[in-house]
């Protein structure tokens, strides 16, 4: 997978911030949607703490490896899917995490059958779509184009 292409997409969808801020749930975050966790050196630092570009890249690289690992667990043939489908699913995984994305049972079924039109329908028929409509519309349009 083209990680650089995924990074550029996620910079648009997640944004990039070189300081600690609260996300929409009030959780400490920085970089490209990196949630500050207890093992992070930034854990407990105040909002507004500056984060270096190098540290943002380091955390993104770690986060994206976790996302790709989760994608291969959820989608058994993930590495054989078209690049564009991999990009879309990785973007969704980055946004929702494995627990939430695993609830998209009909989407998984459509992906397993390589039915990209149905996959797009299932993406739209979700609570996720209502929460991140602009992002979802972009991803859905791309999924439809695969078909």
Provide the descriptors you would attach to this structure in a database record.
61% helix; three-stranded antiparallel β-sheet
What does this protein look like?
The chain is mostly helical and 147 residues long. It is 61% helix and 8% strand. The protein contains seven helices and three strands, in the order αβββαααααα. Strands 1-2-3 form a three-stranded antiparallel β-sheet. Helix 2 packs across helix 3 and helix 4 runs antiparallel to helix 5. The two termini are 19 Å apart. The model has no long low-confidence stretch (mean pLDDT 96).
The unreliable regions are none
Order of helices and strands: HEEEHHHHHH
Beta-strand percentage? 5-15%
Distance between the termini: 19 Å
Give the number of DSSP strands: 3
- Rg from C-alpha positions? 16 Å
Global geometry = elongated
User: How many DSSP helices?
Assistant: 7
Strand order of the largest sheet: 1-2-3
Helix content: 55-70%
User: Whole-number average pLDDT?
Assistant: 96
Counting helices, strands and paired strands, the structural category is mainly alpha
Secondary-structure blueprint:
Layout: H1 3-14, E1 17-22, E2 28-31, E3 34-35, H2 53-74, H3 83-101, H4 105-112, H5 116-124, H6 127-131, H7 133-146
Antiparallel strand pairs: 1-2, 2-3
């Amino acid at each position: 997978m083209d990680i650089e292409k995924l990074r550029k997409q996620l910079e648009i969808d997640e944004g990039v911030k070189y300081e600690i801020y609260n996300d929409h749930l009030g959780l400490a975050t920085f970089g490209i949607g990196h949630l500050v966790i207890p093992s992070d050196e930034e854990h407990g630092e105040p909002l507004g703490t500056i984060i270096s570009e190098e540290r943002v890249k380091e955390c993104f690289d770690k986060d994206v490896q976790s996302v790709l690992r989760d994608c291969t667990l959820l989608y058994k043939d993930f590495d054989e899917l078209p690049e564009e489908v991999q990009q879309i699913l990785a973007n969704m995984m980055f946004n929702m995490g494995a627990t939430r994305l695993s609830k998209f049972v009909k989407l998984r079924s459509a992906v397993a059958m390589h039915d990209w039109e149905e996959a797009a329908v299932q993406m739209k028929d979700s609570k996720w779509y209502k929460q991140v409509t602009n992002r979802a519309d972009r991803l859905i349009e791309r999924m439809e184009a695969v078909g």
